Queue: 2 jobs
Job 1
Amino acid sequence: MALICSSLLLSAAPIPSSKCHLCTTSSHLITSAVAVLLAGGFVMVPPVADAEEDDHPIRPKFVELEDSGGVKVLDIREGGGTTYPKPGDRVEIHYYARLAAKQGWRFDATYDHKDASGNPEPYVFTIASGTVIAGLDAAVRSMREGGVRRVVIPPSQAYQNTTQGPIPPNFFDRQRLYTTVFNQTRLANGEGSTLGTVIFDVELLKIRPQ
Ligand SMILES: *[C@@H]1O[C@H](CO)[C@@H](O)[C@H](O)[C@H]1NC(C)=O
Ligand SMILES: *[C@@H]1O[C@H](CO)[C@@H](O)[C@H](O)[C@H]1NC(C)=O
């Protein structure tokens, strides 16, 4: 109520008190509310120069990986490990996998893959083996154990056919993923550049050197 009324009170034109029927009848209380809002405003609104600075520390940026065909990454947590995975190494990851299309529909997550004792089962693959989509392979190569990063993978580096992983184990999710990404009608409509874009939130758990 105070917010609605104070915006009326702060506008240039005088507001007939009858229009401010949401306000309390006490003008003293209204004035106090405005004062509080104004004081709050000074505290909360950052100086303009700060807001326009490109390298503002609280506004992290996606970085495009070199020679990756357009894979973009945003590090959410830097890993504490000392090495990066090399071709031939096996890696264990957890991931949330989403489509950029379909309102960011989540088509798979290792946190839902439970082993016999009910613990989430990591996904394991070999770096540079071609068994996973190229964008995921590229992103994990520059991660260290313990790292978490969001990876945005353009269609050319994502699902090209149904042979590369990660393949959602759930039949319906798998079906929907493939019919979306490989929808001939939509590809013919020129939607191919956006349709197959995938977003992975990846946690690198372990590197097992070959
Ligand atoms: C699937 O796509 C990958 C990446 O483009 C390619 O290396 C592989 O040969 C393809 N497999 C088939 C069966 O088309
Ligand atoms: C392919 O896309 C078209 C157009 O959006 C849609 O009508 C059709 O149902 C889709 N096909 C499949 C198999 O999802």
Note: The pocket of 2-acetamido-2-deoxy-beta-D-glucopyranose (ligand 2) is lined by residues 179, 183, 185-186 (CB under 6 Å).
Job 2
Amino acid sequence: MSNKMRPESLMMSYGYKPELSEGAIKCPIFQTSTFVFRSAEEGKAFFEVAYGHRPKNENEELGLIYSRINNPDLEILENRLTLWDEAEECAVFESGMAAITTVMLEFLKPGDCVLISSPLYGGSDHFVRKVLPKYGINSLTFKLGQTKEEIIELVNNAGMADKLALIHIETPANPTNVLVDIEMTKRIAEHFSTEEKPVYLAVDNTYMGPLWQHPLKHGADLVLYSATKYIGGHSDVIAGACLGSKALMARVKGLRTFLGNMASPNTGWLLMRSLETLKARMDIQSGNANKVAAFLNEHPKVEKVYFLGNLTEADGAQFDIRNRQCLSNGGMISFDVIGGEKEAFKFLNSLKLIKLAVSLGGTESLAEHPATMTHVDVDVELRNELKVTGKMVRLSVGVEYYEDLISDISQALDSI
Ligand SMILES: *Cc1c(COP(=O)(O)O)cnc(C)c1O
């Protein structure tokens, strides 16, 4: 037996000491705004560390001060989340968008440029294109499938070589499951990094994490999550997370303290409960997704299926990236029905077990129509180029019995 336990074995206990909570087996909800110091000297010492006025002494832990700075439900949750990505530090936020925007605000300043993959999650895309320009921060967008040389040329031609400060990517891209090569993107960051101005790489790993893809191992500096999705997993909580090295996370947590967008103790407690079944849920979801995709692949009313498990050697680079970067095919499937919006809507309106809703990663399977829902803000030209058209449906596969999912999909396809 190896000494190092797997994360799933530690999700019930890691970082929690029952003797500090009257022996309670579960971490209680520390619904408190502030914490009592044992002495004035202790309070002084806690603040010195919290505000970075001196480094921590050996074995010194940051004491509990005030729930905007730290709280046991958040700290234990953060410690548990680090295990999946083998990260040094984690910070949890009140939403995925809070995590993403805090990272952008911390690592970008007026005059800087952020390079993004496209399409990005709608909220991230809006923040980059509509909000950051108000602070004098520019953006550049690279397209899926562009090579390292092409992307470097794009930055150079835009005159942004010495302005680039952050690269933010999502892989696989939503909703088409096209992969971005994290290692290649890291080499682009290194190409533009200088001693005075490092270029950091942030990867939004919501679609695949924290089990099926570990961006930090492929060179990412920061990994971001909407914990609303697989981590929370029950469609009942909004939350976010960011993970990375001690040095970078000190900056992220520093800004979080002053933006005040940390998660609440109640959210921390809910997510700890979710983490206990994370591995079990995600295993079932990816197993179900493989079976649902196999069914869709053979169906006469389905024109095309966008699923990582469908990649073959004939797909070249995409196949190589999948094999290098992904530990599973994930739980997200998109497909084109034969026809257009009318046929796709007929399918969606005929589903009985699968719910018609956006979001993803929860225990219940969801279906939605990207072109008119999640991706309605993407301009039509780009949408067509990405093949996000009226005939596309996106599925988030849940934990139901797979034959029940398949028979629901089957009767809805028959209704077209
Ligand atoms: C949902 C989502 C977000 C935003 O997360 P919230 O928790 O809704 O703020 C960001 N990125 C991706 C890929 C998402 O799916």
Note: The two ends are 54 Å apart (CA to CA).
